[in-house]
C-alpha cells in the first residue's frame, strides 16, 4: 500500500524534474533569442553606418545630372540651334562651370560628361572630364566617337545608346570603361528638346572607391562586406575582387527571396552557406539598386550562445537534482512551502528573474528556496554579462556600435518628447592607416587604445562609443554637458599631425575632433547633431592633413 509520504515523494519528484526541464528549455530559448537580436543589431548597424557614408554619392550624382539635363532642356528652344558650333560652345561653357562646381567636392566621382547627338552636331562634340582620384583635379579627355564605335562596342558606348533606347535616366551596372580602362558605375540621362534627342549628360563613379570602403568592413573575427544584386549577381567580393566573369560564389541565399526583395534586412538576418560554412548576413540597398552586405560565420556570431546554453543546462541539472534530494528529505513538511516554490518556478520559467522567495524556514524547503534564489541571481548575472559583452568594443573596452545604436534610439525618443539636452563630440584618430602600414596593426591598436584612454579620462561622466575603425563618439549629458566647452578645449589639444619619424609614434595622441550641441529649434533627430559634429571634425582633419 502506498503511503501519503511516498505519494508526496512521487508527486514532488515528478514536479521538480519537470520544472527543471521546462526551466532549462525556456532559458535556452531566451538565450538563443537574445543572442540573435544582438547579432542582427550588430550587423545591420554596421551596414547602415557604411550606407550613410556611400549612399550620398549616388544621391548627389543623380541630382547633379538632372540639374544639368533640365538646364539644357530649358536653354535650348529648338534642337536645330545645336547644329551651330558657336551656340554649342556657349552652352558648353555654362554647363561645364555648373557641372564642375557641383561635382568637384564629391569623393568617389571619377568623371562627368556632356555628349551631343552626333546626328545633330555632325561630329563628336561635348566634353568629358576625368580624374585619377579625389586628390587630383579633373582634366579634359578626348571625346568618344560613339557613331564610329557603334552600339555593339558596349564597353565604350553603352553609356550613350542604352539611355537613348530606354529614353530615361538610369544607373548602369559596374563595368570597365573601354575608353580609359577605369572600372566604374555611371548615372546617365538622355536629354530631349521638343521630343528630339539632343544629348546625354552623366557622372562616372570610380567603382574602386566603393570597393575600398566595402573591402575595409569587418565584423567579428572573419566577417567582411561585399556588393551584390541578388543570389547570382555579385559586383564585389573579397574572394573574387569584383567583376570577374568566372567568379560564381554560389551563396545559396535564394531561399530568402522575400527578404531579398526588401531594401534592407533591418532587424533580421539572412542565414545561408558559403563554401560549406554556415553564415549570416545583413544588407541595405544603395540608391542605384546595388546591395551592400556584411556577413560573418555563424559560429563567430553565436559563440557566446554555446557557452550560455552549457551553463543554463548545467544549472538546470543542478537545480533538478537539488530539488529532488530536498523533496525526499522534506516530504512530510512540503505541502504549503511547495506551493510557493512551484509558483516561483513557473515565474522563473517565464524568464522573470527578479522574483525572490521569502520562505526562511531552517529546513529542506528553506534550502530549496535559497537555491532557487541563487539560480535566479546567477541567471541575472549571466544575462547581464552577455549583454555587457554584446555592447562592449573588444579592443578598447568602450561601448560598441550596438550600444551606440541603442543610445541613438533613446535620444531620438527624448527629442520627440521634448526632453533632450545633449552634445555630441566626434573624435577621429589621425593617420591610423600610416601607423598600420609602417609599424603593423598591433601598433595601430595601441594608438587606438591610447587615444581612447585619453578621451575617457576627459569625459569621466559620459559614455564613449567606438563606431568605426578609427572613429569615437562621446555623448555628453548632465555634468559633462554643462562643462562641454571647457572639456572640448582640452580635447582640442589632441589635434595635431602624428610625427611618424619620432620614436614610438603610435604612443602619440593625434586626432581630429568636432562638437555639436542639440538645438531643439533646428534638430529633428539625433542624426542632425551628429552630422554637424562629424562635419566639423572632418573640416579640422582636412586642415591638419599634410599637403601633397
From TrEMBL:
<dbReference type="Pfam" id="PF00672">
    <property type="entry name" value="HAMP"/>
</dbReference>
<keyword id="KW-0812">Transmembrane</keyword>
<dbReference type="InterPro" id="IPR003660">
    <property type="entry name" value="HAMP_dom"/>
</dbReference>
<keyword id="KW-1133">Transmembrane helix</keyword>
<feature type="transmembrane region" description="Helical">
    <location>
        <begin position="308"/>
        <end position="328"/>
    </location>
</feature>
<keyword id="KW-0472">Membrane</keyword>
<dbReference type="GO" id="GO:0016020">
    <property type="term" value="C:membrane"/>
</dbReference>
<dbReference type="GO" id="GO:0052621">
    <property type="term" value="F:diguanylate cyclase activity"/>
</dbReference>
<feature type="domain" description="GGDEF">
    <location>
        <begin position="420"/>
        <end position="548"/>
    </location>
</feature>
<protein>
    <submittedName>
        <fullName>Diguanylate cyclase</fullName>
    </submittedName>
</protein>
<dbReference type="Pfam" id="PF22673">
    <property type="entry name" value="MCP-like_PDC_1"/>
</dbReference>
<dbReference type="InterPro" id="IPR029787">
    <property type="entry name" value="Nucleotide_cyclase"/>
</dbReference>
<dbReference type="GO" id="GO:0007165">
    <property type="term" value="P:signal transduction"/>
</dbReference>
<dbReference type="InterPro" id="IPR050469">
    <property type="entry name" value="Diguanylate_Cyclase"/>
</dbReference>
<dbReference type="InterPro" id="IPR043128">
    <property type="entry name" value="Rev_trsase/Diguanyl_cyclase"/>
</dbReference>
<dbReference type="InterPro" id="IPR000160">
    <property type="entry name" value="GGDEF_dom"/>
</dbReference>
<dbReference type="Pfam" id="PF00990">
    <property type="entry name" value="GGDEF"/>
</dbReference>
<feature type="domain" description="HAMP">
    <location>
        <begin position="332"/>
        <end position="384"/>
    </location>
</feature>
